[in-house]
Every structure is written in C-alpha cells, then in structure tokens.
Amino acid sequence: MTFPYTLPRLPYPTAALEPNLNRATIMTHHDKIFAGHVDALNRALQPYPILQQQPLTQLLLHPDRLPIPIREDVLEHGGAVYNHTLYFPSLAPARSTRPGTALTGAIDRCFGSMEDFLRALGRLSLSDQREGYTWLLSDRCGRLRLLFTPGQATALPLSPLFCLDLYRHAYALTYGDDRKAYVEAALPLINWDALSRRYRAVFTGQPPFPNP
Ligand SMILES: [Fe+2]
C-alpha cells in the first residue's frame, strides 16, 4: 500500500451482512467514512514525494520521521486506512465460513476453546468505552493474543489476523448507541477463511497484512 491510496473494493454486496449489520451501515462506513480517510491521507502526502514512495506501514511505524505539519493527519488517516483495509474483509455473511485446523488448534491452545475465545473477544470489546479497535494478533511463533487500541492507532508491528471496528459509525445506523448489540452481532460475521489465510501466512515469513 503506497501513494496514491485507493478505496479497496468491498468484498461482498452492501446488504450481505444483514440483519447483523444493515446496508446503510456498511454503505456509509465504507463509501463515505473509509473513502474520506483515503482522500485525506492522499491530501496530506501530496506535497511530499519522498513520503509517497514509502509503504503505509513504514509511515505509521516511524512517526518521528513525518514532518510535523502532517504528522497528526498521517497517523489519524493513515491508521484509519490501514485499519479499515483489514476490517471489511474480516467480516463475511453470518456463519458462512469456518476456521482452518491450524487456527482452531491455536485458539484452543491460547484461549481454551472457541467459545472461550469469542467470550474474551466480546468482553474486551466492551471493556473500554472509547472508540477504537479490538485485535486478534499472532506472534511469529503462532501464539495468539487479544488487544484493544484506542482511536486510529494500529497494532503494528504485530501481525493482525482480525480487527473489530468499535467506532460508533460502525454500528449506529443498525444499533444506535448499543455497542453490546453490535459486538454480539459481529461475532458470527467473523470471516474465518480470511483469518485462517492470514494465520497460515504468519509461518511463511511474510507479514499476513497488508496483503490479506
Ligand atoms: Fe470505521
């Protein structure tokens, strides 16, 4: 991912996640909010040809190298581009996918069982009322952990398998202010095919993202 950044195509029709997330929610989130961050990141980098050649992950990993006038914008909008690029393909129509054997084994080892993992993910997503993301991360040995990050911070340099957007804009048009209803409805939408693919990539020496 480098300049000029473009809006990734939504990997399913806008109504594919209904009733868990309605069409208006996905359309607004992807076509307006995500697109707005892409445009704002391109605007910030427009006057800086040297920065345009660097991958987004490098810009985000080294904020001290960003010129002060655009530092805040690149972290905010660049973080949002990175996070949303992972978020949308992390979802799929409810219960349409299943985790692969390796990922299932890792979840059992690290969390006890799939049920325990989903409970922990749900609990963490409701434990902090700030807007941000809940992440499922893997280290290079395949050990899994959960993490909450506030705002548009990323989990870099850790390898993300999944992120759940906890901004109000991710669910307000379906659930109003009810974050709990959103989190419960989002768990059956986890795209286990994508997560399993990213998990396998951890062992190839290639970072699984931003090439999900
Ligand atoms: Fe979002």
How many individual helices? Answer: 9
- Annotation, overall tally of beta strands: 3
Rough outline: globular
Bound molecules: fe (ii) ion
CATH fold title of the largest domain: minor pseudopilin epsh fold
Distance between the amino and carboxyl termini: 12 Å
> What is the count of structural domains?
2
Mean pLDDT: 94
What is the CATH C-level name of the largest domain?
Answer: Alpha Beta
Molecular structure report:
It is a single chain. The protein has 212 residues and is mainly α. α1 packs antiparallel against α4 and α5 packs across α6. The protein has helices at 23-45, 49-52, 56-61, 68-87, 101-111, 114-127, 172-175, 179-186, 192-202, and strands spanning 132-138, 144-150, 159-165. The relative contact order is 0.16. The chain has two domains: 23-90, Fe,Mn superoxide dismutase (SOD) domain (Helix Hairpins), CATH 1.10.287; 101-202, Iron/manganese superoxide dismutase, C-terminal domain (minor pseudopilin epsh fold, 3-Layer(bab) Sandwich). The chain starts with 22 loop residues before the first helix and ends in a 10-residue tail after the last helix. It contains nine helices and three strands, in the order ααααααβββααα. Helix content is 48%, strand content 10%. Strands 2-1-3 form a three-stranded antiparallel beta sheet. It is globular and about 50 Å long.
